[in-house]
Amino acid sequence: LFFGQIKSVKGLDILIESLPYINKDTKLIIAGNPNHDDFQRYQDQIDRLDLNERVLQFVRYIEDEEKDFFFRSADALILPYRAIFQSAVLLMGMSYGVPIVASDLAGNREVISNENYGLLFASEDHVDLARKINHLFESPKLLEDISIQSRAYMEHKYSWKNARRRG
């Protein structure tokens, strides 16, 4: 799953470029609204790489009521960002227990490390991204462990019950 605003800094093109290197049974769900970005350039890339059968597109504003559907349908959340300080989408994915594969930017490294809560790939390296996605899907125990760890982390760190204790 690639979720959220679609803009150059979020690296959707890196993810699309990685798809031919990922197990052929894997599909990409794109769910989000282009923000001052022309989606046609991504569509051209999908066409050039002959990936239309593997890419499910929901290129529009995603209503709050629809978020559950996308996050519960996803086996992993991919965050190929080129630049970021923090990501609400990362934390949202973790709250659903969706394993994360994210670029190794500082904001992502603050949360994800050593297969805790997800995997990191070398920023802007589509081959490394593909390698990490394949590793995740080839390791059912890793998928399960990350999912459990993510939910536990979010419960400990961000639950209303624990927020009340800190407040």
Describe the protein's architecture and organization.
The radius of gyration is 16 Å and the shape is globular. The protein is an alpha/beta fold. The protein has helices at 12-18, 40-48, 64-73, 88-95, 106-109, 126-137, 140-158, 160-166; strands spanning 2-3, 28-32, 55-59, 77-79, 100-103, 118-121. It has a three-stranded parallel beta sheet, covered by helices on one side. It has a three-stranded parallel beta sheet with strand order 4-5-6, sandwiched between helices. The model has no long low-confidence stretch (mean pLDDT 91). The termini are far apart.
Q: Taking strands numbered 1, 2, ... along the chain, how are they ordered across the largest sheet?
A: 1-2-3
What is the CA-atom radius of gyration, in angstroms? 16 Å
Q: Give the low-confidence spans.
A: none
Instruction: Report the mean per-residue pLDDT as an integer.
Output: 91
Describe the structure concisely for a colleague.
The chain is an alpha/beta fold. It is 46% helix and 14% strand. The strands form two sheets. It has a three-stranded parallel sheet, with helices on one face. A three-stranded parallel sheet has the order 4-5-6, sandwiched between helices.
